[in-house]
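Q: My collaborator sent me two sequences in one message, no labels, and asked for predicted structures for both. Can we handle them in order? The first one she listed is below.
A: Yes, handling them in the order given. First sequence, followed by its structure tokens:
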Amino acid sequence: MARLSRTKKKELYHSIKGARDIFGDEYRLREWFIERAKHVATFYGFGPIATPHLERAELFGTTLGGTTDVVQKQMYAFRTRGGESVALRPEGTAPIMRAYIEHGMHTWPQPVLFWYAGNFFRHENPQRGRWREFYQFGLEVLGTEDPVADGLVIHVAVLMLREVGLQNVLVHLNSLGCKECRAVWRKELVAYFRKHGNALCKDCKRRLKENPLRILDCKEERCREASTNAPQSVSYLCAHCKQHFREVLEHLDDAGIAYVLDHLLVRGLDYYSRTTFEIFFEKPGESAESDNSETKTEVGTEESEKKKLLALGGGGRYDYLGEVIGSRNVPAVGMALGVDRIIPLLREHGKIPKSLQEPPKVFFVQLGTTAKRKSLHLMEELRKAKIPLAQSLSKDSLKSQLRIASRLGVFYAAILGQKEALDDTIIIRDMDSGAQETLPFVKSIEYLKSKLRGKGQPRPPEITDEEDE
């Protein structure tokens, strides 16, 4: 008896963990946010820059710090067939500083202001608003140590969020000082944490020897508690750094930007100096444990209202990064917003613009090959007239296409059959009454515009799993 052969089940391919497909309304909403952010940034003098997704791994290992989680645990690094060690960019600042030095931008009028938008990559645990491939919009000001640049970057970042309707924004702020005053603070940190060594996690015990500032950035609860009474950087600032930080705060006061001083804020990368900041969205009345996204909880002074703070971005000053990359002193400051964090907030708080919500008002019915060919011209006229429409290229029967039009909730169906295509006419059908009128092709656009005037929005489309004929 012949043995029946087993057909191996074909494997279905899925996107890899931490990556995702973006399409439809989410894609349109993301592009809309980027356009609004670009509009604000351009108004304030920032110009565009794009850097490669691939850089030499050494660029990040040297600039971000060899003991940082980004370099040790999160960076996608590999060797090419030619033996070169490269990495998918985990952040945007180091590549932009590399470009500034490589292309001799120090000869340009200073400072140089850039905005950028694009994908970045880190091997993190995926959770709400955090992906291994993520999208950021950033600003960089290179070539000045003036505190007005720090204020400008923070101000423009907040304005971008306000531009899209996110008003409840709070900035957490700190100053890490310059090399000289930070060295004194570092010494005091080491002495403090040596006394509390048993309270630290395994990683932070190692950080105590390699880079004690990283302990302040640890997310482990016991390390956060141990850091509560740690020496504060602002207590060790030199006179010049104190004045710099004071002027940054004055700029924020003048701009009406809400902020709090956060003495545990050191950010996760080694290149930061002086000003560091994070930008949060305040969500009053929500428990901090409602999801796994990166949050802080703040207790307000009035009525002790708990507020959940959702991190949307951050940045700071990096005056020594240029020396590390190219032996050139380039004072600079920048920030990046996490677009993947912002888009869900826009949905959650009803900030989706009407231009993205506008449903089709006309369904274009095409019957036959000649009609389908001729329909392209009429659809273009509808587009020029800004009349939203829908169509179904794969359906040939009138019944199935009208059924789809009904489900979509459109006001009218524009029916173009073989006869109408030859006669240069079109049938306009009222989807509520069923009444139809045949019009010359050239008059149909104005007819639809007059009929749709004052109609408002169509009803929401019906959701159904039923297959059309």
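Q: And the one she listed second?
A: Here it is, processed independently of the first:
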Amino acid sequence: MDIFDEKDVKPMLIGADAEAFDDPDFLYELKLDGERAIVYLDPKHGTELRNKRNKRMLPIFPELSELHRQAKGRCILDGEYIVLKDGKPNFSEVQRRSLMSNPFKIRLAADKLPASFVAFDILYLDGAQLTGLPLTERKDILRGTVSESGRMAVSRVVERGGVELYKLTEQAGLEGIVAKRRDSRYYLDKRTKDWIKCKNLLDDDFVVCGYIRKSDHMTSIVLGQYDGPALVYKGHVTLGVSGEDFRRIEAHNTVAAPAMEVPAGHGNEQAEWITPDLVCTVKFMERTANGGMRQPVFKGLRDDKAAHECKVAR
């Protein structure tokens, strides 16, 4: 059985952050504010969309069920599904959709703000695994295999001028760029420094360990990350109580004590602790000397990543 039939591809992950740079050995493309996905397209038999945890996503994004009509062969694509709002990719809308389960509400959301899939790599075509080919060859094959539509796009590549592209993303309020080594191979389920993100804001993923009610309108989410096998305290981020994310956190299973050692102060004595298996993304300006975050902003819950995958940055 080949990787198309198995349908258990784990994507290659970005392995480094850096300031924007120019290097003839790299290609540059936009960093989209969506959710990573692998899509299996069979022109005769349909579309299968999986997130990073291999969860089937077509029930939540039914508007992407016809992507196979844009493929000229049986293929596996790596990319992101995005939702545009006011002309820009909106991560909050993607996350809101990802957490839906009611088919009627899903259909309403799909009609109002439909998702699109943006492909940036091809891993398989008509029985041949392409992961051992250099990136430039995979990009050429991708462009020859997929035709674009309202629900399908191919990520645009800039051959040079990474710094200039990054400046344009700053001006447009976009997330940033990704630099990819031109000759890079694709290593399934591996993190590689051949792919480098250059972002206007940093972000990281954390385990939601509890919350502290600050007022009728605001709460402070207690964050953790894994350092080896141990969950360690990583501070707080503020979140409003009126949104779906907090309602989901508040409804989660409570526990009598935190799953990690927590310092005194910061309101931790008043925290409501929960089972540490929800994951959230936090944006911030920079890391502090003690490993904290400057100006953290809660970005959203995500269900495509397991708690144990949230690791302390090195």
